[in-house]
């Protein structure tokens, strides 16, 4: 889509690609959402994408509306880039990169999900690694934060493996019930110690032109 260059942003690693989630890509991902492949145990957040919606068609509709709203929210306090995780040109999940007062603090956070058919293969850590490379190398981020429920061993392990440091605790709800979160923080200097040289960024200039980074 030439009139919206952010749709051309990609991050590629030897294992997978983060590809901007255009409507065509979302249409391909919708089958996973409709089939409930994004469900996880333990359950994730109560999120506006409404993965808990029992009706499959309504679940897809709410999921799409959430991302369309997110695309339209681009300001200094908050912006979000939506990426499909592609393996051999097959979409297997999503990895989002979110700016949080980025122009002031240089902080990013993230949100992701992976199809139940592709878990426990190392994709979760690889897609987060790709997202961090875009944030730090491509956008000049100063820090990345993450949080996960204390019983989400997979997400907490990824943060630990990638050099995040514990940053306290917080509360959130899932299925309406309160649950405790671990908070994590990764500084630029910590990321630099283990940055990789086999990750490629594509069309990142569009981010500098269309996002409030400074």
TrEMBL record:
Database matches in InterPro entries: Acyl_CoA_acyltransferase (IPR016181), GNAT_dom (IPR000182), Ribosomal_N-acetyltransferase (IPR051908)
Coiled coil stretches, renumbered: none
Limits of the N-acetyltransferase domain: 16-187
Domain of life: Bacteria
Signal peptide from the UniProt entry: none
Pfam family for this entry, one: Acetyltransf_3
Name of the protein described by the UniProt record: N-acetyltransferase domain-containing protein
């Amino acid at each position: 889509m030439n009139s919206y260059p952010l749709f051309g942003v990609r991050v590629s690693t030897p294992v997978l690609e983060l590809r901007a989630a255009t409507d065509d890509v979302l249409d391909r991902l919708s089958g996973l959402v409709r089939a409930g492949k994004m469900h996880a145990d333990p359950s994730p957040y109560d999120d506006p994408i409404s993965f808990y919606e029992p009706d499959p068609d309504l679940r897809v509709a709410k999921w799409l509306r959430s991302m369309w709203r997110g695309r339209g929210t681009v300001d200094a306090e908050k912006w979000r880039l939506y990426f499909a995780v592609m393996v051999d040109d097959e979409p297997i999940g999503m990895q989002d990169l979110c700016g949080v007062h980025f122009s002031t603090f240089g902080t990013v956070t993230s949100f992701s999900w992976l199809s139940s058919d592709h878990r426990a293969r190392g994709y979760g850590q690889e897609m987060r690694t790709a997202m961090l490379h875009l944030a730090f190398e491509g956008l000049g981020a100063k820090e990345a934060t993450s949080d996960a429920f204390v019983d989400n061993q997979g997400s907490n392990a990824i943060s630990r493996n990638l050099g995040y440091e514990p940053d306290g605790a917080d509360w959130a709800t899932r299925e309406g019930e309160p649950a405790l979160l671990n908070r994590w923080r990764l500084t630029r200097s910590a990321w630099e110690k283990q940055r990789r040289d086999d990750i490629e960024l594509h069309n990142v200039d569009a981010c500098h032109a269309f996002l409030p980074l400074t």
